[in-house]
């Protein structure tokens, strides 16, 4: 076995030069080797050398160590099979993560190199995989690191995959944060990515070394380094190690961040987003005790519901297409359909951790609001619905308390009146049967648009967009942070005060700094949430409101609706992009709507606007 280690893999050499201390150290070498479990590792390595099995060395080593791991996050099949790719990882253990990473990535592509320090370099069987660097600042470190940088860039320019641990050392206790994490990552990795045009893939290894390891590190870093063999053996057989794969980040996205430091900080943030914390699916502390769920009510016979729809005047019909009809009506005209809507709401909302817990989701506001319904006349069933309140009529008859959102937010005097006629939107849903297609939601939005075109004085939409408890605490905070930065009406701050404001906690536990450009577009936060939620992105309804130019006025936690997070959003349709409006209104509808409002000249009546809004743009049919 030429080129392999002859004798022990690991030796405990004396750090002392003078004879007396060297002699004293020799007395403790053997017991210290046992404590550090060097003898165990050496025995295992000898056994592996004698093993003539055909399996790759890394597979045999992991099996002998008893290492088990569980893949989470994005499927490994989404790792690009060709092209330059830098896989960036946190470094919690020391050796195990490098071995595990090779086993995972080799299932997708064979052209793998690892940029690693001396620990993996001690194993001759790893030589063909390694590009060695030295993070410890020895006399020859600079020369070795320059050579490693050149070799890494050459490998990537050839289209290879390079796995890196940018921290350069094992995760350790950060006293200020009170947490174990990697130190700042080396900006050299950002330079490699910029110079080679490589994409990046964040990978997070769940776990940490022991309290003893962390305590020794506070005394001196070399003391914790001595403990690495013991720590890695302990973790090997303790429990399955969770490995979370993020989404691939294209080079164009990374290059646009700015400096090498900006790139590597962004990648560190994306990696630590993959960390899983206990109780992450109970985002904000429950405000009320857990409710018992009553059985959902039974539906009426379909022919009874169909007869109620058939009796509607043509003026209530907004859209007919294929098997679907979209209509709007008040509670008086459709009492049986409204009951069915309540059943389907409750059924749909419970599936995402919301709902009232009652047999149906019906409240007093349903009696005074109008209902926009997506009806499948072939199946004779409700496929989805919206409810909306005509604020000019409700405020005139009932005052602010007549609006549903007033139960969640305290409105300052003058805000609602300054909006002029508006539609308060809410309780939107598409039943589970129809959620596989985008068409039902699109038809609901087209129905809203048709109502607005027919009633063009309603130039503003507002209401609560829910982010359900199915989203982790971290995802909800990411969405909140993005909207507070880029979609918040600061001129209206304090005009809508949440009755139960959410507590932001999770992001404060991530040790990170980010350039502003890392978080500036809707797609940016969608990518972040997709990593955290294993593929699921931000709510579709929220995306649509933001594309229409929606602005957030505040956030509230709704204890009567599964503690979901509600964002109060305002859309001024006269300021929306006409091309986006056209998807829902059609070009002719946009032209009619804007023409009807041309007399206002697009001037905002909202407080704090500071200047007139843009003149409405007319779109030809």
UniProtKB/TrEMBL annotation:
Associated pathway: Lipid metabolism
Keyword check for Acyltransferase: yes
A Pfam family matched in the record: Acetyltransf_5
InterPro entries: ACT14924-like_Acyltransf_dom (IPR045746), Acyl_CoA_acyltransferase (IPR016181), Ornithine_N-alpha-AT (IPR052351), Plipid/glycerol_acylTrfase (IPR002123)
Keyword terms of this UniProt record: Acyltransferase, Lipid biosynthesis, Lipid metabolism, Transferase
Highest taxon, organism lineage: Bacteria
Domain Phospholipid/glycerol acyltransferase: 85-196
Protein's recorded name: Phospholipid/glycerol acyltransferase
Species this chain originates from: Pseudodesulfovibrio aespoeensis (strain ATCC 700646 / DSM 10631 / Aspo-2) (Desulfovibrio aespoeensis)
């Amino acid at each position: 076995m030429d080129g392999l280690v002859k004798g022990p893999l690991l030796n405990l050499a004396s750090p002392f030069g003078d004879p007396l201390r060297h002699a004293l150290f020799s007395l403790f070498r053997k017991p210290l080797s046992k404590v550090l479990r060097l003898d165990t590792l050496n025995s295992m390595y000898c056994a592996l050398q004698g093993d003539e099995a055909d399996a790759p060395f890394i597979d045999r080593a992991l099996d002998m160590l008893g290492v088990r791991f569980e893949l989470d996050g994005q499927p490994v099949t989404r790792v690009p099979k060709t092209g330059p790719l830098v896989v960036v990882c946190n470094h919690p253990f020391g050796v195990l993560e490098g071995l595990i990473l090779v086993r995972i990535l080799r299932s997708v592509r064979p052209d793998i190199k690892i940029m690693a320090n001396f620990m993996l370099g001690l194993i001759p069987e790893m030589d063909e995989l390694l590009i060695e660097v030295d993070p410890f600042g020895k006399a020859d470190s600079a020369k070795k690191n320059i050579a490693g940088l050149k070799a890494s860039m050459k490998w990537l320019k050839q289209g290879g995959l390079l796995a890196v641990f940018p921290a350069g050392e094992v995760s350790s206790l950060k006293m200020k944060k009170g947490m174990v994490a990697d130190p700042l990552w080396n900006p050299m990795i950002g330079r490699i990515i910029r110079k080679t045009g490589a994409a990046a893939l964040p990978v997070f290894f769940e776990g940490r070394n022991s309290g003893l390891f962390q305590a020794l590190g506070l005394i001196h870093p070399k003391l914790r380094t001595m403990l690495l063999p013991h720590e890695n053996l302990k973790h090997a057989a303790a429990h399955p190690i969770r490995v979370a794969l993020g989404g691939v980040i294209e080079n164009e996205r990374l290059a646009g961040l700015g400096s090498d430091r900006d790139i590597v900080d962004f990648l560190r943030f994306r990696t630590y987003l993959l960390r899983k914390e206990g109780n992450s699916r109970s985002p904000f502390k429950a405000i009320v005790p857990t409710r018992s769920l009553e059985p959902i009510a039974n539906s009426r016979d379909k022919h009874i519901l169909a007869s109620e729809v058939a009796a509607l005047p043509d003026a209530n019909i907004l859209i007919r297409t294929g098997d679907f009809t979209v209509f709007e009506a008040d509670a008086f005209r459709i009492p049986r359909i409204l009951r069915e809507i309540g059943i389907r709401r409750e059924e749909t909302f419970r599936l995402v951790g919301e709902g009232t817990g009652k047999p149906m989701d019906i409240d007093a506001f349903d009696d005074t609001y109008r209902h926009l319904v997506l009806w499948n006349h072939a199946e004779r069933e409700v496929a989805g619905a919206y409810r909306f309140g005509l604020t000019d009529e409700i405020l005139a008859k009932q005052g602010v308390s007549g609006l549903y959102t007033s139960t969640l937010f305290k409105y300052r005097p003058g805000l609602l009146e300054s909006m002029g006629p508006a539609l308060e939107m809410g309780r939107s849903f598409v039943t589970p049967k129809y959620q596989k297609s985008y068409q039902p939601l699109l038809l609901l939005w087209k129905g809203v648009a048709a109502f607005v075109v027919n009633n063009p004085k309603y130039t503003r939409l507002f209401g609560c967009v829910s982010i359900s408890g199915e989203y982790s605490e971290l995802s909800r905070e990411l969405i909140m942070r993005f909207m507070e930065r880029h979609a918040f009406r600061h001129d209206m701050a304090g005009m809508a005060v949440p009755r139960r404001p959410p507590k932001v906690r999770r992001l404060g536990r991530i040790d990170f700094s980010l350039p502003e450009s890392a978080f500036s577009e809707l797609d940016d936060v969608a990518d972040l949430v997709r990593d955290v939620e294993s593929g699921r992105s931000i709510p579709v309804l929220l995306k649509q409101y933001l594309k229409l130019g929606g602005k957030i006025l505040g956030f509230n936690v709704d204890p009567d609706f599964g503690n979901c997070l509600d964002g109060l959003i305002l859309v001024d349709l006269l300021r929306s992009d006409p091309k986006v409006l056209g998807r829902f209104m059609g070009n002719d509808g946009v032209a009619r709507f804007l023409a009807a409002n041309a007399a206002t000249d697009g001037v905002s009546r909202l407080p704090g606007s500071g200047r007139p809004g843009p003149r409405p743009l007319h779109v030809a049919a």
